[in-house]
Amino acid sequence: MEKVFITGHRNPDMDSVCSAYGYSVLKNRIDKKREYVPCRLGPVSKAVENVFENAGAVIPSLLSDVCLRVSDIMKRNYVRLDVSNPVYDVIKLYNKKHPSVIPIFDGDKFICLLSSDDINRYFLLENHAKGRPFYTVSENNIQRCIPGYYFKKGKKAEVKSQFVVGAMEYDVFKSRVEECDVKPVLIVGLRKRHIQYAIDSEMPGIVLTGINDIKSLSDFDFSSYKGFIYISELDTAETIKLLRLSSPVKRIIRRDKAITIKEDTLFDEALEILIKSEERGLAVLDENLNFTGYVTRRCFLSPEKKKVIMVDHNEAEQSVVGIEGADILEIIDHHRLDAPKMASPIFISSEPLGSTCTIVYEMYKKWGVRLDEKTAYILLAGVTSDTVMLKSPTTTDYDRFVVKKLLKIAKVPSYEDFGYMIFSSSSNLREEDPEKIILQDYKPYSENRFRFAISQVEVSSLLEIRSVEDIYIKALEAIRDKNGFDFVCLLATDVFAEKSVLLTTPFARSYRLSYKKESEGVYYLPGVLSRKKQLLPEIIKTLSD
């Protein structure tokens, strides 16, 4: 079944994770032809962990990228052959299935990929060899390739020998046999002197053609003969052709080591390896180095892009790695639009609401799908977090309406207690790694030639951030330098007191900020709770010409 990844933005917050989960539940109920997988693009906060644990739900899985890999294009269904199979089986398989390559095994051990080039090389060498070519003659393979039966089996199941056809007069035949490098296998009709010579000379095998009555062999004493005797039902010409093809596959495979790639090898990297190798295909191994399939040049011609639904964001810079090469099916968001260019129309639901989870609730109503208690609880957490318990200026009347509905469906008795549970799970700024805290809810922006990022963290008291502000400003500077930003900010918010502190690295136009400056890089923001609705517009204003 085709997978569609539903993912929020990098450095996922509550709304991002909860909306991805909630929308995946809806999509899986209304579309049975695809599997919708909720994902996150980074570690989640303790508050998110608590919400999903309380709801009895699994946190969306971590998605590292949507880049095409070998695992997305490889052929997993294949017909394999063993090194002991006759070359005849290879020819039959190519005539029937027309594969680019055939995986060859020795028991359970992968050996190589056999291509038509290898087969052509084998027959070209055979036909242009100096002297009489050698063949590996397998008793099992003879019976698999040539209609007939064994009159007598030999002492050896497999021999390496040359072929001689007893179609000439006895003296010429005898001289030809003596010219061979080793005792050859004889292919002959009912020529008694030729057959007796083969018996007396202990040739490794005799293939008889044109024998209609087994009684015609009663004149021969085969009791001491150690080779095999096979009665072919075909004429001599057909018998010789199939006897050559009875050689095991191991005779035609190359001995150099097979070129292999891993399932997680990137598409472009695998293509480059294949082109440089001049092979028709490459074997694919899993993390345990087991053969799982192969890729051929045809696999790279029209690869199926990974399919993505973006929730709680619409900018490529904030999205999953590889989004530029993915097939974006939908965007569900409540931020300003700066979406990637699309090759074809897609569904976009972009509304000026306080939370993406509010939009997801609206989608349930649109499709007439009843919300279950678990999903309602998770959507309620997303709305509560993003609207700061409906106190944020981004909050709309519809957000308030949705919260009332979700409280009832989720069977949450007290909204105040529910909100306290979410925001009391705030990170401990003194004990945890500053960079980890900053990157938990962190969004990059580009405005008027400036590249910057704003992070937000909820605290139980502003005294908590004031006691570690120097440490956090240094962490902001490190993130700025690492990512090439002009500046980076951290908005520390006390939800219950409805005020914030802004920490920022220096930037040329910071003097334009309308907030009270308490010290270098530290500003006091009473009544400011929203990054999107309050802080971001202020920063954009300071950056304008």
Automatic annotation (TrEMBL):
Pfam families: CBS, DHH, DHHA2. The lineage of its organism: Bacteria, Pseudomonadati, Spirochaetota, Spirochaetia, Spirochaetales. Keywords: CBS domain, Hydrolase, Manganese, Metal-binding. Its cofactor is Mn(2+). Residues 74-130, 253-311 form the CBS domain. PANTHER family: BNIP - RELATED, MANGANESE-DEPENDENT INORGANIC PYROPHOSPHATASE-RELATED. InterPro entries: CBS_dom, CBS_dom_sf, DDH_dom, DHH_sf, DHHA2, DHHA2_dom_sf, Ser_kin/Pase_Hpr-like_N_sf. The keyword Zinc-finger does not apply. This is inorganic diphosphatase. GO terms for cellular component: cytoplasm. Homohexamer. It catalyses: diphosphate + H2O = 2 phosphate + H(+). SMART domains: DHHA2. It comes from Candidatus Ornithospirochaeta avicola. Its EC number is 3.6.1.1. GO terms for molecular function: inorganic diphosphate phosphatase activity; metal ion binding.
